[in-house]
Amino acid sequence: MCDDFTLEQEEAALKRMQLSRREFAARAGALGGVAAVAACAPTDGSLAAPPEGTTVGKMVEFSAEDGTVDAFFVHPASGKHPGVILWPDIAGLREAYEIMATRLAEAGYAVLAMNQYYRSAKAPVLGSFMEWRTDEGRAKLRPMIDQLGSRAVMRDAKAAVAFLDAQEVVDTSRGIGSNGYCMGGPFTVYSTAAVPDRVKAAASFHGGGLVREDEDSPHKLMQKTQASYLFAVAENDDERSPDDKVELRKASDASGRPAEIEVYPAAHGWCTIDSPVYDKAEADRAWERMLVLFWGL
């Protein structure tokens, strides 16, 4: 996940951009438009805000077993659409993920971007990914992370599905999708296991902890679901745990659940727009594979 192993790639990316961590965080945190992040990203592409008026987005609150969840809900301005639960990376729900959720809404989905830390604080808990790399950011999040066991996330997923199914803009005749990044990668599988008759597709981007020994390991839970999967794996994560992709394939075959499993030539965090290792070309390619997956909802 976002640990000292992936820190090396982030340091290399910052060196290429000739920015310090503080400078990168300041630019990303100032996201007064998307251009601030695009200027930092180690790509020659750019990010564009969606056409004005095509989506409607706002912060919402709804009840869950463990408390009141706050989340960002965004959807096309008209019509009914499949719902999607978005699980942010370890730094939590923030403007970068609101932008990413809005982009998915532009593709025709009603997207609920979760604040996974709602038990402790309302979003944004941190303003950017780089705040997680500070001593203060780590100290702030550690006790919050400790509350996010697999069963807790499953309870949250059930509440998220109930919220989506109660919205007029959600087409309940279609399945619900889930996508997640880093920490949120395994949360997508927890979502499919929590409400298997509703959550029918899950896309994990540079997800951590997908293959573990415990019974709630995502690869073991696949057999309890009715979903199709996309596992987009970072090359440095694969270098550290090369057997994970093999175990995911075995789990897919054994459970009969379709899964696309690919190691991307990009570093952990490459799909998150305020990450120093954001790779636009590979992020766009993974995004297109997610849209193919969600097409079947």
TrEMBL record:
GO molecular function: hydrolase activity
Gene3D superfamilies in alphabetical order: alpha/beta hydrolase (3.40.50.1820)
Hydrolase in keyword set: yes
Ranges for domain Dienelactone hydrolase: 69-294
Chaperone keyword on record: no
Alphabetically ordered keywords of this record: Hydrolase
InterPro entries: AB_hydrolase_fold, Dienelactn_hydro, Dienelactone_hydrolase-like, TAT_signal
Domain of life: Bacteria
Pfam family, one: DLH
Protein name: Dienelactone hydrolase family protein
